[in-house]
Sequence to fold (194 residues):
Amino acid sequence: MNNTPEISIVIPVFNEEDCLTNLIYRLLAVMQETGRDYELIFVNDGSTDRTSELLNAFYEDHPDKVTLIEFNGNYGQYTAICAGFEQVRGIKVVTLDADLQNPPEEIPKLLQKMDEGHDYVGGIRCKRKDNLMRRWCSKAINSIREKTTQIKITDQGCMMRAYSRSIVDAIAQAQEKSVFISALAYKYASNPAE
Ligand code: UDP
Ligand code: MG
Fold:
């Protein structure tokens, strides 16, 4: 395995047996298309379905490309992402969800922005099917956060994001108990983009 791939992709996974095969197939296709050297880091957050079996089979097939972290229980998405951050070897890091709400085909757009010199690029979910209440809550949270921290993020819940390695290392070292990864990354970024 190349010790320093260009890209590390970190994916937290909890009970995603229905999506995993499709996700992996699409990820491999899109990353091959980019021609960039990459690694995939899956963190199985205590899944109780066939997620572990599927991830282990994928690891067996691609030990050079895949790192698999298995939690002994369910600790939550952000804890899983942080565990992945501790293992990254890439120069740039991408996070995305396993349930295909973040299409892997969007990864090249994030990387393009990184190539343009941004050290943190946030994705925005365009076709969200959230109800009125959830949209209202998001707006309220965004407004409070902007007023109190000056951090402007259109869609802080979207984990389709790209970060420079230094930002990821800073987050991993911060050891925050309740991590708001999107806002924390913004804090460490010098040239963020969405
Ligand atoms: N996830 C996780 N641990 C959990 C819940 C979710 O690792 O306890 C993963 C999940 O498999 C997915 C991502 O985190 O890859 C986002 O989860 P979900 O789709 O439930 O969140 P939402 O779409 O509501 O933001
Ligand atoms: Mg989801």
In short: The chain has a mean pLDDT of 90. The helical segments are 17-34, 51-61, 77-85, 107-115, 132-149, 165-174, 181-188.
